[in-house]
Amino acid sequence: MSLKFLTPTGVQSAASGTVERWSQDAYVALLLRVGLGVVFVIGGWSKLSQLLDPARSDAIVALYTGPTGYINTFFLEYLFGVGSWLSPWGFLTTLSTFEFISGVALLAGFMVRPLALFYGFLLWTFVFSLPVVLTPGVAVAEKTYLAPALLVQIRDITLSGLMFILFNLGSGAYSLDARLMGSAVKRPTANWEHLGLLLRLSLAATLLVGGFFAGMANIKTFGMPALLMIAAGVAMLVDHRAARVASGVLIAMLLIYILGKITFEKSLIGNLNAVKREFALLAAGLVLAIRGGGELYTVPLLMIRARESLAVSRRQLAAHPLRFRVTVPAMILLLAPAVISLAVVLAPEARAQGFFGGGKLSKQVVTIRTKERAGTIIVSFADRRLYKLIGQGRAISYPIGIPKAIDRWDGTLRVTQKRKNPAWRPTPSMMRRNPRLPSYVPGGHPQNPLGVRALYLGHTFYRIHGTDAPWTIGKAASSGCVRMYNEHAIDLYNRTKVGAKVVVTWKRYATRPGYASL
User: Fold this and answer.
1) How many CA atoms lie within 13 A of 339 on its CB side?
2) How far apart are CA 494 and CA 253, in angstroms?
3) Would you say the pTM of this structure is higher than 0.70?
4) Between the CA of residue 25 and those of 33, 105, 113, 227, what are the distances in Å?
């Protein structure tokens, strides 16, 4: 230790350096705290003003629980299903009240660490609960989210990262926590190298997702060119000096975006709510510009470590040479069993999915021997195909999902109704088997079991319909109805008139590919 640290001047210098470091971290925490607090105050205020207004409460509940809301069917059933004491309005009102109070508490610097830890995890639930439709072949009748939830909610993931940074920094300057519990609550529990890395990763995630997936559905780009967002995101990861430049670009982008969203047609809270997350991103950009993002895992540091590791490896190899040689025949003998096993496992599934020659589950024109007239629908549960007769011994063959063994039936019926986006209600027998089924699913909902089209057969509960579970086509999975891919259900719907004859049978039909394509 240098003797100068034993002098009064040295002690004073060390103390002032420590105070300066704490002050810097404290003001960083203050910036983040205010940015995040503003998000929750605006969000809570906006929702409560609508939920507590009788004229607008139904609309916001319908929005949050609908296809463009934030609660998917799984969580709707879990939270508000049969036997639940929760109501959507009560749940949203409670959550919004807590959100508003949390925002005020963050602005005042009260209970900062508990709130930051709680919201750091809670923000991820918006990813799990978002209603999305990503299954290929599913026709979407209602507007909903068509991108992976993680990408749609990437800004909330960034906010989660900021919350964890705030949790480690403490309450910061001008906080009630410091007044009530002492200055210890302002002391960071991690060094800035690690927190700066988390800050860079959190902000870069939003920029890179917006840049790489620009133009795709539900991806936030702030109205900026994709290349600019990618460049700024990569710069935040490459070097601490480049990260500071990128933070300036981010701040400029956010300011332009915020100003562009302001309109006189909306109320003050309506304008603020449209850009509430951007206030937290602005605060984080300012922190990165002022405090920097540290040098941990930057490209220059990684290159130094790589060179050092390579040098150590060379010295070890020189000291202990490794003799290892594998001939080509030996490699073939080693890999052949694994390749053969993989092919055996994957081939049946690939055939089932239609990867070879059009596949078992494709729609096609076939020749068929039957006495039925053109326009008739033949449902062969044995073939697991539906044949729409088009005349001259030909039919359009569609793959179908058939009833389970307990629900087998056959007979001749007529199409009595045709419905677009039909609503679904479970039959009494279905409710007896599974009391947790929803009593009603509106038409157009992405998880409506009837899909987007339905043909009603006679005066029975049986339907020929689309599905929300396309992976069940070709399998015995229904409770008596005939399932089709949604695009096939639309095609059949357009080709079929009310009154058309429907023959349901367990007879097999010898068919072969027809001479005309669809």
Assistant:
1) 6
2) 48
3) no
4) 12, 20, 15, 33
